[in-house]
Amino acid sequence: LEAETPGAHVHARGFVPELGIEDPATGSAAGACGAYLAAYGKLPAPTFVIEQGIEIHHASRIEVSVETEDGKPKVVRVGGQAVPIIRGNLRLP
To answer: What are the tens digits of pLDDT across the range 41-56?
Structure first.
């Protein structure tokens, strides 16, 4: 879990074996990581940065903020920056 880039606290990778791909920025996993670290008293800081996607040349920085109450995660917020891979529009009838 050790980060490689300055300012990051956690290094993560997200694989999707069924599709043979790696996700460069997995926000849902970042939120779960924050809640897990808070639940076990291992938060590096109330707001911390997860780096992901470095190995596939689509580096992302995901910021996770965790509010705790009585040592347990109460609110988890996820945001950050990622490298756009695709853009498009969705038209609904």
So the answer is: 999 999 999 999 999 9
In the predicted model, is pLDDT for residue 81 greater than 80? Answer: no
10-81, superfamily in CATH? Diaminopimelate Epimerase; Chain A, domain 1 (3.10.310.10)
List C-alpha distances in Å: 4 to 17, 58, 61, 72, 77: 24, 14, 12, 28, 23
> Hey, where are the domains in the chain?
10-81
> What's 73's DSSP letter?
E
H helix count then E strand count, the chain: 1, 6
Q: Model's pTM, two decimal places?
A: 0.82
